[in-house]
Write a structure and sequence with these properties.
It is globular and about 70 Å long. Helices cover 50% and strands 10% of the residues. It contains 13 helices and 4 strands. By secondary structure, it is of the alpha+beta class. α1 crosses α2 and α8 runs antiparallel to α9.
Length: 257
């Protein structure tokens, strides 16, 4: 998990999403006063405060958060993460490296799960050797058949490149669901990293992305992790607390994104 890199590809979309959120909300209340395109453009260009964005994004009228797409690239996450995150299909688009067209013979690298990282070098080496063996068989099948057939032998830990495109509302929904401690460590880590970058760009729009326990009681009932995150905690704090082995170099990276 140490080499997973994440970047918001179009950060300007977040400012546009804020602007559209406010405009859409105002439009519902001021339709009677809009007589021309100039009237609408005046409404569209009218300024707003962070407090206005926070207030509107907390409303149950989620459509106003769905104007605009934020594109994020994730380099080096596992294909297990791919399988999990693509369960989210509503208002989300994905583009991934293909096991059918890409040939990973001699090119494979693997995500080391966080619990294995914590277990020490012996467990890490055993994990890597197991994956390397799988990819040797992959290379044999790729040579004798094709990359598509060989893909069935690729381990879930194989690193991948993924682009996710989603509306602000859907990003918030995915983060809300996937940073809960009941999720796989890698999925939590990636979604916390994405939330961290979105939060830096717009705290007003992305402050309320945490799991149930951050803002109230857990709604999972008996399925709760029994380890709630502190109330009103920002993503950077959760990353430092839950993934100390991975957070050493993130501060500089976040400044560059």
């Amino acid at each position: 998990m140490k080499n997973i890199e994440i970047k918001i590809l179009n950060p300007e979309a977040i400012t546009n999403a804020e602007k559209m959120l406010v405009c859409a909300a105002r439009l519902t209340q001021r339709g009677h006063s809009i007589k021309s395109l100039d009237d609408f453009m005046h409404l569209y260009e009218k300024g707003y405060s962070e407090n206005t964005v926070s207030t509107l994004s907390a409303l149950p009228h989620t459509t106003i958060q769905k104007f605009g797409l934020i594109n994020v690239v994730i380099v080096g996450a596992s294909r297990r993460f791919l399988a999990q995150i693509t369960r989210h299909q509503n208002e989300v688009k994905f583009m991934s490296a293909s096991l059918q067209y890409s040939n990973y013979s001699g090119e494979a690298d693997f995500v080391v799960p966080y619990k294995i990282l914590e277990s020490g070098d012996d467990v890490i080496d055993l994990y890597k050797l197991t994956n390397i063996f799988s990819m040797k068989e992959y290379a044999h099948v790729a040579e004798s058949c094709d990359s598509d057939s060989a893909g069935y032998l690729a381990p879930q830990g194989l690193r991948n490149i993924l682009i996710i495109s989603a509306t602000p509302y859907q990003w918030k929904y995915m983060i809300h669901q996937r940073v809960c401690r009941r999720n796989t460590d890698e999925t939590r880590y990636i979604m916390l990293r994405i939330w961290e970058q979105l939060y830096v760009l717009s705290p007003a729009l992305f402050s309320d992305c945490g799991p149930f326990c951050v803002s109230g009681p857990c709604k999972e009932g008996k399925m709760s992790c029994k380890n709630p995150i502190r109330k009103n905690t920002i993503p950077t704090d959760i990353l430092k607390e839950d993934f100390p082995l991975l957070t050493g170099g993130l501060e500089n990276e976040n400044k560059n994104n």
